[in-house]
């Protein structure tokens, strides 16, 4: 079936990116982060491709994501990074999900859920080493460790991991990096001196895997890099290949005179008689409205700038005198193989990051998967 727009996902690229990151991890295990629909790529399919590339763990942000992923991946460890009061932690424990705790109350709530489930919960304790987001800071860390030790003594939890997260690993040389490395070392030492014996310690995100060998520890957590987008664009692409190509089929073509106002507000007015092509993708699909008159796409072998405002379901491009027909393919972004913009190009035009570009591609855009080659 022909669709107005679709995201083509190269699963082989995800697999190969994971293999590259695994090589760069220096012997550490790899937790593939597949939260937020695998950054827009499709959680289950991306997870299986990552496992094929050598990942041995999977990571999600929310408990509901973990429960859904467990149905597709029955065996691999799956870590849930966030928790709020009142979630069905007993279901998560029964499903064998790893949970995160960075507060005393959450350790205690997970322990209570483990008692209800009649099982021992697998828990990763999170230290705030300078991100100032989730996790326990230095003043609260000893109490979190003590609560975890008490729950372990009761057989309700087992602390399988200690971890933290970088704030500025994508900015090599930032003074926060050595401070966070030192703070994590101290947090690990305090926990282990108190009697915790975690299986893994983990700190490195995509940027740290590629630029900070000292941050790799036992386990690394690639996110954006597994989808082929550089976590530190100023330093290059690191040999990664983008996995998503966003395309659409031209819906309509019209010839218009000079002085024609295009789309809402007439923020684009044709300078001469020209051909306009209607592209059936808009901000309802994830094409940023603030990309109006700014973002480029590939059509008819050339890059064309969006003409006028991006609408909820569509936008217009000015083809000048070039030939175009309904059904012709437009590439919004991709790896750049044919001269099309990349997600990074869009991000730079809009003053954001490639993470946002791919993650915002909406659920009404079908994903078409390029399958893994057999035997690889």
Describe this structure in words.
- This protein is an alpha/beta fold.
- It contains 11 helices and 19 strands.
- The strands form 5 sheets. The protein has a 6-stranded mixed beta sheet with strand order 16-15-18-10-1-19.
- Strand 3, helix 4 and strand 4 form a beta-alpha-beta unit.
SSE class: alpha/beta
Low-confidence stretches: none
Helix and strand run = EHEHHEHEHEHEHEHEHEEEEEEEEEEHHE
How many strands, which pairing sense, and closed or not: the largest β-sheet? 6 strands, mixed
Task: Quote the distance from N terminus to C terminus.
Answer: 29 Å
**Looking across the biggest beta sheet, what order are the strands in?**
16-15-18-10-1-19
Q: Provide a count of the helices.
A: 11
Estimate the strand proportion: 15-25%
How many individual β-strands? 19
Overall form: elongated
| Average pLDDT level | 97
Portion of residues in helices? 25-40%
Please tell me how large the radius of gyration is: 24 Å
Using brief descriptors, characterize the structure shown.
6-stranded mixed β-sheet; 22% strand; 30% helix; 376 residues; 4-stranded parallel β-sheet; alpha/beta
Give a short summary of the structure.
The chain is 30% helix and 22% strand. It is an alpha/beta fold. The strands form five sheets. The chain has a six-stranded mixed β-sheet. A four-stranded parallel β-sheet has the order 4-3-2-9. Strands 5-6-7-8 form a four-stranded parallel β-sheet.
């Amino acid at each position: 079936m022909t669709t107005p727009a679709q995201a083509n996902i190269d699963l082989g690229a995800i697999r190969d990116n994971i293999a590259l990151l695994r090589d760069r991890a220096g012997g550490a295990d790899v937790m593939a982060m597949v939260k937020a629909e695998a950054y827009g790529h499709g959680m289950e399919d991306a997870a299986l491709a990552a496992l094929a590339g050598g990942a041995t763990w999977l990571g999600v942000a929310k408990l509901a994501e973990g429960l859904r992923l467990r149905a597709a991946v029955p065996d691999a460890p799956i870590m849930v990074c966030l928790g709020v009061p009142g979630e069905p932690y007993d279901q998560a424990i029964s499903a064998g999900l790893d949970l995160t705790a960075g507060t005393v109350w959450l350790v205690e709530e997970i322990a209570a859920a483990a008692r209800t489930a009649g099982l021992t919960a697998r828990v990763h304790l999170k230290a705030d080493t300078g991100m100032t987001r989730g996790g326990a800071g230095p003043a609260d860390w000893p109490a979190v460790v003590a609560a975890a030790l008490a729950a372990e003594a009761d057989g309700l939890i087992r602390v399988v991991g200690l971890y933290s997260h970088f704030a500025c690993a994508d900015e090599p040389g930032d003074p926060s990096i050595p401070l966070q490395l030192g703070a994590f070392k101290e947090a690990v030492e305090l926990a282990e001196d108190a009697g915790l014996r975690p299986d893994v310690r983990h700190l490195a995100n995509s940027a740290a895997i590629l630029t900070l060998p000292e941050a790799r520890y036992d386990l690394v957590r690639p996110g954006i890099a597994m989808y082929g987008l550089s976590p530190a664009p100023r330093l290059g692409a690191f040999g990664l290949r983008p996995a998503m190509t966003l395309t659409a089929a031209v819906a309509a073509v019209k010839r218009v005179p000079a002085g024609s106002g295009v789309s809402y507000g007439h923020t684009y007015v044709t300078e001469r008689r020209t051909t306009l092509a209607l592209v059936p993708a808009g901000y309802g699909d994830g094409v940023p409205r603030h990309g109006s008159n700014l973002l480029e796409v590939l059509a008819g072998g050339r890059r064309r700038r969006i003409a006028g405002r991006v609408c909820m379901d569509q936008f217009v491009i000015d083809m000048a005198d070039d030939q175009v027909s309904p059904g012709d393919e437009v590439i919004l972004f991709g790896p750049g193989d044919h001269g099309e913009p990349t997600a990074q190009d869009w991000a730079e035009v809009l003053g954001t990051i490639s993470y946002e570009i791919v993650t915002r591609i909406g659920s009404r855009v079908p994903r078409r998967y390029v399958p893994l080659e057999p035997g690889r």
